[in-house]
Predict the 3D structure of the following.
Amino acid sequence: MRIKDDAPDLTAYGAPMERAKADTSEQTLRGHCLCGASSFELTGPHNWVGHCHCESCRRASASPFTTWIGHENGRWRWTGQAPRTYESSPGQTRGFCGTCGTQLYYFSDRYPDETHFYAALLERPEDATPLQQFHADEALGWVHDALDLPKA
């Protein structure tokens, strides 16, 4: 495990993967961490938006699942403080705000053309609708009942 003070330069990577279904070709979405120091913009269409149920994502986000936006490198930028990075395993980098600790992104050597951003960090998270889920076999058993719980 390594924590670094500088974010890797991920803007030089290549071609996009399959696009999400909604027409977002001219869209710019903005997001930020809890304290607002680290912020970003995503421009154009997402490669995909989906929920991940894997144990690594659950532990990194302290949530039952994580909703990711896969976005083409070169179509996003930091607009605030660059994040610090953490190598969670070889070839897997997670970025977080150096001030408040908010998780910001995930990058993997397995997906060199895109970076995965936390959808909940968007100013308008409803603008990124999940269309798929990953590692559903690792989903916590009680997740599907969440919306049926009594409202407080």
Remarks:
- The longest strand covers residues 66-72.
- Confidence is low (pLDDT under 50) at residues 1-22.
- The helical segments are 55-61.
